[in-house]
Automatic annotation (TrEMBL):
InterPro entries: DUF7923, Znf-CCCH_tandem. This is CCCH zinc finger DNA binding protein. Residues 98-280 form the DUF7923 domain. Residues 50-77 form a coiled coil. Keywords: Coiled coil. It comes from Trichoderma harzianum (Hypocrea lixii). It comes from the Eukaryota. Residues 405-453 form the Tandem CCCH zinc finger domain.
Length: 457
């Protein structure tokens, strides 16, 4: 090899080293930008939470300052040249409380959509619906509580996945103004009217709404808490805890809109109800695939496109197979049959559901009939025993094949006890029936995905 060739080889080696170093620098910079993007999103969410807390705190601080000022004015008030001191401090406290009464309206915007006409009008529609809602709430309060002070405030909080709703309205109302303009208009009407972005996760709005409920019910100045979110069974657990407390029940009003979910429908009559049909839709937004899900789904054997969102609501729209299709088998490998009273578990001690086999035709026909799972599968109904009525069908006895299909339907709802469930008569599911699954839109928690279904003796 000549001296020139050796020199050229050394130059090539140095060049390769320089290129490799550049690639490492580019990779580092890309990672840094990705990390900055994640931190920016987290910061934005933290700012939103902080704003909510500051608004609530500012409202309470303002009311406290006003109350203290009025108390001081009363103490300095003179009658006949003498300073007037109230004889009954408790009576004075009640007077100041009545003068600072407010009502709180909490709405799950994903489950309680406004009428399309308001969204279609964009900025003006948002302003109009906020004004109408404030007026409707105020009139309802004055009708039920005639002695309420005229200056009583109405605090309205709408929590929703704004990104998901915006996309849905673009599909539903393509000729309308932007959903962002609608929200902007809504937020400009009154300082106590807020349409708040809760984020994309299912739990985001849930936790904010529960916190707002706790705040309203825990404030002695709050006369009434209006709640709008009838389409989500998850809230039934919250309101069920209030059933034994007559005082709190009297402080809650459930707003009607889309049909009440099964568990909420069973207890809604225990609370006061009100409907504003000119403001809210009577049905959920069609083909809803954002934060919420539906329990009415097709069996696991129905094929789904790999790029389709695997929410339950989306699954409900998948065409069913012909009436005489072969039996459908669930997701898991074939475990050993479960004797009565025996719970199958894997090597980690997690519960494993036994294999089911049913026909597509039985599954489809039973799914549309809205049968009571507990009554047909267990021979008893909790809602019938506790409340004297059940909104699902009891009816005639099902065949063995139909019962097997009904078990498959029941397992589309996740068990609240999770993988450690030890109830021998549990009919709910302990693993998501769809694998792989798009977690963001799935009703099953993360730990109920990819569960080992190999049974250990």
């Amino acid at each position: 090899m000549t001296e020139n060739q050796e020199h050229l080889k050394r130059l090539e080696e140095q060049w390769n080293l320089v290129m490799a170093e550049d690639e490492r620098k580019h990779a580092l910079i890309s990672d840094l930008f990705g990390h900055i993007s994640d931190l920016t999103a987290q910061l934005a969410e933290a700012h939103m939470d902080l704003r909510d807390r500051k608004d609530m705190l500012e409202l309470k601080r303002t009311k406290l300052d006003q109350a203290e000022k009025q108390i001081e004015d009363l103490r300095r008030k003179t009658v006949g040249g003498k300073r007037w001191i109230p004889e009954d401090v408790c009576e004075l406290t009640m007077v100041t409380q009545d003068e600072h009464v407010f009502s709180m309206v909490i709405i799950d915007g994903d489950n309680m959509p406004f009428q399309d006409e308001f969204v279609r009008d964009g900025l003006l529609g948002g302003k109009r619906v906020a004004s109408l809602l404030r007026k409707a709430i105020t009139e309802d309060i004055k009708t039920r509580f005639p002695t309420i002070p005229a200056n009583a405030q109405v605090v309205i909080r709408v929590y929703a996945n704004l990104k998901g709703l915006s996309k849905k309205y673009r599909e539903l109302l393509p000729e309308s103004a932007s959903f962002e303009d609608f929200v902007r208009g809504y937020n400009t009407v009154h300082p106590t009217c807020d349409f708040i972005d809760a984020g994309c996760g299912k739990e985001c709005a849930d936790e904010k709404i529960k916190a707002a409920l706790k705040f309203g019910l825990g404030d002695s100045h709050c006369k009434q808490v209006f709640f709008g979110g009838p389409g989500d069974n998850g809230y039934a657990r919250v309101f069920d805890s209030f059933l034994e407390d007559q005082t709190i029940r009297g402080q809650i009003t459930l707003m009607a809109g889309p049909p009440f979910a099964y568990e909420l429908a069973a207890i809604k009559d225990k609370f006061q109800n009100v409907a504003f049909d000119n403001i809210f839709r009577g049905q959920k937004l069609p083909n809803e695939t954002n934060r919420r899900t539906s329990f009415h789904i097709t069996p696991p054997g129905t094929p789904m496109p790999s790029n389709a969102p695997l929410s339950f609501a989306a699954a409900a729209k998948v065409p069913t197979s012909p009436a005489h299709s072969a039996p459908v088998q669930l997701y898991c490998p074939e475990p050993k049959p479960s004797p009565n009273g025996v719970i199958l578990r894997n090597r980690l001690g997690q519960r494993v559901d036994s294999r089911l086999s049913y026909s597509q035709s039985d599954f489809s026909s039973l799914k549309d009939r809205k049968l009571c799972n507990n009554f047909h599968l267990l021979g008893k109904c909790f809602y019938l025993d506790k409340y004297g009525k059940c909104h699902h069908i009891h009816g005639e006895k099902l065949t063995a094949q139909q019962l097997e299909a009904l078990r498959g339907i029941a397992r589309q709802s996740p068990c609240l006890n999770g993988l450690s469930c030890s109830q021998t008569d549990c009919v709910a599911g302990h693993r998501c029936p769809r694998e792989p699954c798009h977690l963001e839109n799935c009703w099953f928690p993360k730990e109920m995905h990819g569960v080992d279904s190999q049974v250990i003796d």
